[in-house]
Amino acid sequence: MRASEYLKRGLLLIPALLSFHCANQLPPGGGEADLIPPKIVSTYPENRTTGFGDNYFEIEFSEYVDKRTFKDAIFISPPVDGNLEVSWTNRYARVFFPSELRPDMTYSISIGTDVVDYNNRNRMDSAFTFAFSTGEKIDNGKIEGFVSDEKPSGIMLFAYRIEGDTIDPSIHKPDYISQAGTNGYFKLDYLAYGKYRIFAVKDEFRDRVFQPEQDLIGMPHTDIPLSEEDSAFYGLNYVMQKIDTTGPKLFSAVMTDRQHILLTLSEEADTSAYKRENFSITDSAYRKIANPLFVFKGRTKEKELVLVTDSLFREEESYYLLSENLRDRKGNLSGTDTVEITVSVKPDTLKPVIYSTEPNIYSDKIDFAYPEFIFRLDDATDMFGGAKPLAERISFGDTVGNRIKFDFRRLDDGSYMIKAAEELKPETYYEIKFMKEDIKDAAGNSYRDSLYNYAFKTITGLEFTGLSGTVKYADTSKNPLLILRNKDEKKLVYRQKLKSDATFEFERIVPGTYFLTLVHDENGNGEIDAGFPYPFVPAESFSTFREEIKLPARWSVTNFNFIYNERIF
Q: How far is Cα 206 from Cα 79, in angstroms, rounded to an integer?
């Protein structure tokens, strides 16, 4: 509808609009609790209006909404300078532009999913977008996709028109903005033709820029050119990540007794990558005394770890701990940090305890195909020293005396893994045993003449399920990899390369509910490579089947059809 036609209609609206600015937004009281998300019923101007010349637009909601959340959820593309002014009449909002609109320009107005209703704080299900033009035509570019996240609703899509490779989302504000809905789906509509780079940003400060220390971000797998001949793109999918470019910092070192030093770091500690050589203890003259004996995680908090030392400390003296080259889970290395040690001379009298195992002890759900077992202690022990290493003092076998070969691997100085080096028998009881006195801490504490017995039973093998089928439209030249993830057990993940004929077959799957993803795993690391914002490194392209896949016991699902980047809207 052209703007001139609104002029004819306007005479009919004058009585209603005379009181528009002075009315308050007050919902009627009473009634049952509202569980329905608010929706946008109508707009002025209507979608795709050309020749628009007014200095405001209007929104009608299906119910009363929170005024503040509405104002925060308005995104105008291209951006307008200044602050918007909003007036309310019941369920109608009139929004005034702070400056004159540019001529011959398509403007899109997006109302994001941050809008909540007045009574029960229900969020809008999806962003709403309409457009108008101050000229004679409407731009028709469109980009759609999904954001993969546990809570995708409200994640922003920052779209930049690019001519070079200078877009830094931590500095530059986007040309177009939208938001992901409750299911992760997003749509950027009415884009001008050109080349776009689009980031998904969990914009915590709502400042329209990416804050590396605060916000999660998702990178696109490609830049997208839009033209009159090719005006739409579907399948721009994102996985969110936190950008971390700094190594861990050492904050404090407190002795809990004369053997143990509890460290607090700036981020999660990856003790499997730490060695005693990463730490050294000095006196007040910064003369090196010793390296610690052991490094382990134990029963500490996320950002903590423990050192074990046999050095003799005196409370009246000052001591310092130096750390260097600590590696975090992103592979970032620290520099050199030094903190003063809070000294304790209290003796360590506690015996070491295995406080956690994976799987749990006495489990009867152990797969018989080369199972792995993790044992975690609340203190460190010398696993490889002494007259006989710990692995040689462990027995692994069934209850009638048959021995099982196994591999032993240190995870840190307080935890280790045992993996069966041969396939076990189905529906059979097994035991992993050693004397508790073989687990001795640095102070010499251990249990005497006490047997530790980890018992378990293997499954029959009949419980398994499977999934097989075909994938359409995957790029077989980019190493397509299928990843099957259990919805409830996060560690239960199966991977399989797509066959050359675009088929796949997962076998020996634990029954449950799963999500299926195909990633073009070009770097071969078995995961979705998330990329980097600036300098820009694209993510690997992927697509996730949009419905949960239920795999029942003793029944394989066959002829499964997975359409890569299937459009469901």
A: 15
Nearest CA to 160 among 134, 192, 132, 121? 192
Strands 288-290, 336-342: parallel, antiparallel or unpaired by DSSP?
unpaired
Cα 464 to Cα 552: distance, rounded to the nearest angstrom: 8
Q: Cis omega (within 30 of 0) on the bond before 538?
A: no
What does the alpha-carbon distance between residue 494 and residue 197 come to, in Å, rounded to a whole number? 32
**Partners of 499 in the β-ladder:** none
Running along the chain, 569 residues long, what does each successive block of 10 average in pLDDT? 43 40 49 80 97 97 95 91 94 96 95 91 92 96 95 93 88 93 93 96 93 94 96 96 91 96 90 89 85 94 94 90 90 92 95 96 95 97 84 95 96 96 97 93 91 96 95 96 95 95 96 97 95 96 96 95 87
Residue 331: how many CB atoms within 10 A of its CB? 10
3-state SS assignment for residue 158: strand
Report residue 340 as tokens: 């003063």
Q: Report d(CA 499, CA 180) in Å as an integer.
A: 33
Closest CA to 328 of 267, 373, 402: 267
